Amino acid sequence: MRVDKYLWCVRYFKTRSIATNACKKGHIKVNDQAVKPSRDVYPTDKITVRKDQVNYQITVLDLPQNRIGAKLVDIYRVDTTPKSAFESQELLKLAKDYYRKKGVGRPTKKDRRDIDNLYNDQEEE
Fold first, then answer.
1. Structural domains of the chain, count
2. Distance linking the first and last C-alpha atoms of the chain
3. Domain with 34 in it: what CATH number?
4. Do the bridges between strand 28-30 and strand 46-51 make them parallel or antiparallel, or are there none, so unpaired?
5. Is the separation of the CB atoms in 41 and 33 below 8 Å?
6. 69 with 55: CB under 8 angstroms?
7. Checking phi first, is residue 44 left (phi over 0); if not, alpha (psi -120 to 50) or beta?
8. pLDDT (tens digit, 0 to 9) for every residue of the chain, 125 residues total?
9. 45 and 18 in contact (C-beta within 8 Å)?
């Protein structure tokens, strides 16, 4: 089975085209070698998938015939991703919260007009 089809079947990617593009960009490695989307996958292969700034590590147990349900995914693969990979993702989320939220900071053009209108109304009274 092709590596892009396998990753789509075990639900690491929503579509095969997204899986194919990930292979072309070098985000997929089989046995520590970057692969093309057409590379065949066999049981006992170790696949590394870089997705959302996390390196998922998968060991292939068996090859599904077609896309499978989420509850059946563990039959076909073993996820050996270390916990530290997910901890770094949590730190990244916290770092993003530090930046300015929408609506905070400099006023927009509409906000500026509303402020000006408020001051003008107070001066007329």
1. 1
2. 78
3. 3.10.290.10
4. antiparallel
5. no
6. no
7. left
8. 899 999 999 988 999 999 999 999 999 999 989 999 899 999 999 999 998 888 889 999 988 888 889 898 888 899 888 888 778 777 777 776 666 566 677 778 888 888 888 888 777 76
9. no
Report the 3 state secondary structure along the chain. Answer: CEHHHHHHHCCCCCCHHHHHHHHHCCCEEECCEECCCCCECCCCCEEEEEECCEEEEEEECCCCCCCCCHHHHHHHEEECCCHHHHHHHHHHHHHHHHCCCCCCCCCCHHHHHHHHHHHHHHHHC
On whether residue 61 sits in a domain, the answer given is yes
Q: For the range 70-75, what are the long-range contacts, defined as Cβ-Cβ under 8 Å and sequence gap of 24 or more? A: 70/11, 73/10, 73/11
Output the CA angle 29-90-70, nearest 5 degrees: 55
User: Does 121 map to a domain?
Assistant: no
